[in-house]
Structure formats: C-alpha cells, structure tokens
Write a structure and sequence with these properties.
- The chain has about 240 residues and is mostly helical.
- It is about 65% helix and about 0% strand.
- The chain has 11 helices and no strands.
C-alpha cells in the first residue's frame, strides 16, 4: 500500500467535522433581523398598509434607520422576510430526506414533517394582509422570489453542481407555482382565518399541490379514465414519466 492510499484511507475514515455553533455576533445579527421583521408585521397589523414608514419600523424595533437598511433594502423586503422561517424549517426537513428519494417526494415529506399547522402562520398572515392592498404585492413577490432561490440552492445541493440550470430553475418555478395555487385556493375558501383548523387546511393544500406536481398533474381517476393498452392507437403519444 502506498503512502498516498494510506493517507486517503485515513481521511475517509476520519469523522466529518461537526458544524460550528454560531458566534455571538451572528446570533445578535439574526435577533436584530428578526426583531425588525416582527416590528414591520406588527405595524402592518395595527396601522394597515401604507400607514407606516421605515422610520416607524426602526423605532418599534428599537434600532436606527441606518441599522434597518443594513438588514433590509426596503419596507417591503422587511415584510417579505416574515415568511423566511417557514421556508427555512421546510428546507431543514428536506435536507434530512434520503438522497435516493425524488425531490418532490422529499418536498412533500418535508411539509408533512412540519406537523404543527402554526408553522405556516407567518406566511399565511402575510398573504392575507397583502390581498386587500395590492400596493404591498411587492412584499409577497419578494417572499416568493426568496423561496425560489432557496429551492434552487437545495436542488443543486441534492443533485450536484453539474445539474442543468434550466432543470433547477424550472423545478423551482413549478414548486413555487404550486405553492401559490395552494395559498390562493386556501384564501378563497377561508379568507383571513388564521385559526389552527384553517392553517391545517393550508398545510394540506401545500402537501396536495406537491403531490399533483409529482404525478405530472395526472387527472383524477374519477374524472378521466386512462385508456387501456389495447385501446391505444399506434400514433398515441408515449407516456412521460415524472423524473423530479
């Protein structure tokens, strides 16, 4: 055995370094960011859209205007960030899924792992509060864009750096579209109801939407029956198998 192979074997057998704990500085920055986002949401609840400013948010959070802009480029971005927590927890669960599982199976399982319906509450509340005032649509848009970026990063991490950029962007866009559809249907059914029962419905809509995407949006069996093999004509289009 050569010295090189011995070194490689030793490296392979050595335990992976444990993740380092966040520093006090990192914890303080995360707390400040969270405090600013919470202040923005509190003012949206109490004052209504268009009735508060960046200065109001900074004062409520107990920080300076300059500090606000160190964390967020705009009022809308601060509001959008209230949805970050849900996405972060969902992606934590996603990364725990087996590597041989399809991405959409892992996404569905990650949502199911977030058993507490209140975990979706911040995202649901932001969606509800911005529906009556489209001037805040930018906040909702920024929240979805942030989620898209996180999904792309998670997909690259699962599939490797060599994966097609078209693939990961199309996948992320499809997942986000399903998320928007679930939110829209939930809001049409429940309105601004943020009770645990209503949020449980939203969580189920999100899970079901991922299931629809995973099956290639095959129509329910009670709506359209698939033709039998003997009934297919020679010119029938081949079935496309889901590869997500």
């Amino acid at each position: 055995m050569t010295q090189t192979s011995t070194t490689q074997d030793a490296a392979a057998e050595s335990p992976l370094p444990e993740p380092t704990a966040p520093t006090r500085r990192e914890l303080n920055k995360a707390a400040t960011r969270s405090s600013i986002a919470a202040a923005a949401l509190d003012l949206l609840r109490s004052n209504g859209p268009g009735n508060f400013t960046v200065e109001d948010i900074a004062a409520t959070a107990g920080v300076s205007r300059r500090t606000f802009f160190n964390y967020f480029p705009s009022l809308e971005a601060a509001l959008a960030s209230v949805a970050d927590g849900f996405m972060d927890r969902a992606l934590e669960q996603f990364r725990l899924r087996p590597a041989d599982e399809t991405i959409l199976e892992s996404a569905q399982a990650a949502l199911m792992a977030l058993a507490d319906p209140m975990s979706v509450a911040p995202m649901a509340e932001l969606f509800s509060l911005t529906q009556d005032n489209r001037s805040l649509a930018r906040s909702e848009l920024e929240a979805w864009e942030h989620c898209t970026g996180q999904i792309i990063d998670a997909a690259r991490g699962r599939l490797g750096a060599g994966i097609s950029e078209l693939y990961v962007h199309a996948l992320a866009g499809s997942v986000i579209s399903c998320g928007k559809a679930a939110m829209t249907v939930w809001f049409a059914e429940r309105g601004p109801d943020l009770s645990p029962e209503s949020l449980a419905d939203l969580r189920q809509h999100l899970i079901d939407a991922m299931g629809l995407l995973g099956t290639g949006f095959a129509p329910p069996s009670d709506v359209t029956a698939a033709p039998k093999a003997s009934e297919k004509t020679p010119n029938s289009a081949p079935t496309i198998t889901d590869r997500f």
